[in-house]
Amino acid sequence: MKKLLTTIVAAGALLTLAACSTNSSAKNSKSADKTVTFHALNGDIKVPANPKRVAVQNYPDEVASLGGNVVGTDSWAFPNPYLTKNQKKNMVDLGAPKFNLEKLIEQKPDLIITVDKDQVADYQKIAPTVLVNYQKLSSMNESLDYFAKLLNRKDEEKTFLKNFKKAADIQKSKLEKAGVTPSKNTISLLELQGDKIYAFGDNFARGGQTLTTGLGFKQSAKMAELSKGIGYAEVNAESLKDFDADYIFVDFAAVDKAQFTALENNPSWKNLKAVKEGHVVTMDYNKVYFFAGPTATKKELPLYTDAIIKATK
Fold this sequence. Notes:
The chain is of the alpha/beta class. It is built from 13 helices and 13 strands. Its main location: other.
């Protein structure tokens, strides 16, 4: 009964908002922002030419990096520690895996961006909704370009990329002085969760874009396969030989440190080239596991540079 009542209230709120929006649009049509047609996964959508209040799943970093006003995002992306207070000043946690409709309505977005096709119909009752095909936004440059077009912020994109290159060049120089030439070295990314081991491509956070797009490391052959596919795979210790590389990056939470110790004692692990050469770099799970937007990628540059230098001294 309680669940039914909540649903009815949410539905009523949606109808009320739609009615209010219609009346408001009629009264203020002269002052309303212009709209443009944007080709999205869910068709040609009329969106504000210059969105002022954006609710976005998965990609709050991209919107914020371009100077957009993010008023809400999902619970997984919300904790991003790399966004500034100013970038997050209007941002609220809208829940996950789908947005809480009542909270979404309260934020009064003029544009909603989602990766969940099943929720588009509900979101469209609140504001113009763009469905994103996240599999096609596999790199920082691709995703930044996509959102710059959607938000009409191409100048901001150019500025960000210029500053990103400067920051990356500084860190590359530090690595070169330490005897590490990224462009001549391959990498693989692993993560430990409980008794499971996961391998990742460069498009699933875990420092992938920082290391490749930013610092210029090459992907191992097996890592490149994951990057072209769904982005990750569960593996076992015996199959790690397929992910051997010049450098292996492993992230895990503090509670899984014993799992890493156990892995270090595994014969299959000890036989890896990166292990033998002392090129295993451990990272804090909480700092890298889900944060891969442009700002996070930029701010992770010194984090990874320092970790590499420390691990390979």
